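sanity check this chain:
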Amino acid sequence: MSSTIVSSAPVRGTAVLLVGSMGCAMTVLDTNVVGIVLPTIARDLHATFADIEWVISAYVLCFAALLLPAGSIADRFGRKRVFLIGISMFALASLACGLAPSAPALYVTRALQGVGAAFLLAPALAIIGHAFHEESARARAWAVWGGIMGLTMVLSPLIGSGINAVLGWRWAFYINVPICAMLALAVLNIIEESRDPTPRTLDFPGIALFSLGMFSLTWALITGPERGWASAAVAIRAAAGVGLFLAFSFVEQNREHPMLDLRLFRAPAFVGAVLAMFAYAASAQVMASLLPLFLQNAAGNTALAAGVGMLPFAVAMLVLPQVGRKLAAYMQPYQILTLGLAIVGIGNLAMMYAANGHRGITLIVAMAILGSGGGLLNGETQKAIMGTVPRHRAGMASGISTTARFSGILLGFTGLGAVLASGVRSAIQNGMQQAQLPVVPGFVDHVAAGDFDRALGMYPQAMSSTLAHIAQDSYGQGFSSAFLVAAVVAALAATAIYALMSRAAE
C-alpha cells in the first residue's frame, strides 16, 4: 500500500503542475492571440486607435490591479475554489468578448476578462507553490512552468493567425470556452483544496487607489494623441493619476498590512531589480502586442503572415532564458540585467531602422535581437527581485514583481501607443501635403486605427495606390518613433540599474 502511495505521488504532482501551468498559460495565450487579431477587430468594428488601445489596456489594467488581491482571496477562501471561479469568469467574459457588437462593448467585456484572468492566474501560481515543498522539486517545477509559458508565447502568434484566417477574430475569444471547460474538469478531479492558515488581510484602500491611479494615467495616454497633449481633459486625467499615486503611497506607508510594503524600496538593489522588471515589460514584453500591428499595418502583411513573422521574436524569447542561466555562473545579476536591457535597446534601434523602410532580413534580425534581450531579462528579472529581499519577505516581493511586470506592459502599451498614434497622424498630414491631396475628415482617424480599406474608400479609386503608400509609410514612421522611445527607456533603465545595483554588490 505504501509503495503505491509513494509511486503515485510524483504522478499526482506532475498532474497538479500541468493543470496549474495550463491555467497560467491561458492568460499568456489570450494576450498574444488578441494582439494578432487587433487590426482585424479594428476593421470589422470600425474602431478608432483609442478603441484598439482600450481592448488591450482594459484587460491588462484589471489584471494588474487585481492580481495581488486575488492571491489574498485565494489564500483565505480556498485556492481550488477561487481557481474554479476564475476559470468560470474568464470563460463567460471570453464568450461575451466574442459576441461584442461594438468596440466599446468589446473593451468592457475585456475588462471583465482581465478580472477573470487575475482570479485564474493567482490561485494557479499558489497551487503550484503549495504542491512542491522541497527546494529541488520546487526549482524543477518552476523550470517546467517557465518552459510551458515560453512555448505558449511561441505558439500564440501562430494560433492567433490561424484562427483569424480560418474562423475569424471572434473565435480568438470563443476558443477559450471549451478550453476553460476542460481545465475546470481537470481542476475538479486533480486539485485538492488548500488555504493559508494565516491569510493576509485585504487592503481595500490600496487596491482602490492603485487601480484608479493606473486608470487615470492610462486614460490620459490613450486620449492624448486625439485630444491634444496640452488639452485640459488630458492634463486633468494625468494630474489625477499622479495625485492618486501620491495618496496610494501615503496610505500604504501608514497601514499595518499594506498591499505593497514600500519599505522594501529603501534598498537600492531592490529598486534596481524592480525597475529592470518594469523596463523589460515596457520596452520588450509589450512588443508581443505591438509587433503584430507593425507587421500588418506598416509592413503590409496579412494576419497569417504576421503570425509567422513573429517567430524570430518569440523563439528568441523562449531560448534566451537558458543562456541567462548559464551566464549566471560568470556574471552578477545586475550585469545580466544591464546587458539584457542594452540588447533590448539595440533591438529597438534596429526595429526603428527596419520601420523606416528596410524590411526583409533586416527586420528578421532586428526582431531576433529584440527578442533575445527580452528573453534574457524574462529569465533573470524575477530571480533578481527575489534575490534582493530576505526569505520571509518573498511573498510580498513576488507580488511587487508581478505588479511591476503588468504595470510596465500597461504603461508601455499606452505610452508607446500614444507615440505611435501621434507619429502616424503627423506623418499622414505631411504625406498628404507633399502629394497635394486634400485631407477628408475622418481619413486620418481611420488610417491611425489601421482601417485602410475604409480610409481609402473616402477617395476616388484612382487615388488608392498613392493613398495606400502614404498610409503604410505613415504607420512605419509612427512605429519608428515608438521604437526609438522604447530604446531610450531601455537605455535609461540599464544605466540606472547599473548605478543602483553595482554599488550594493560591492
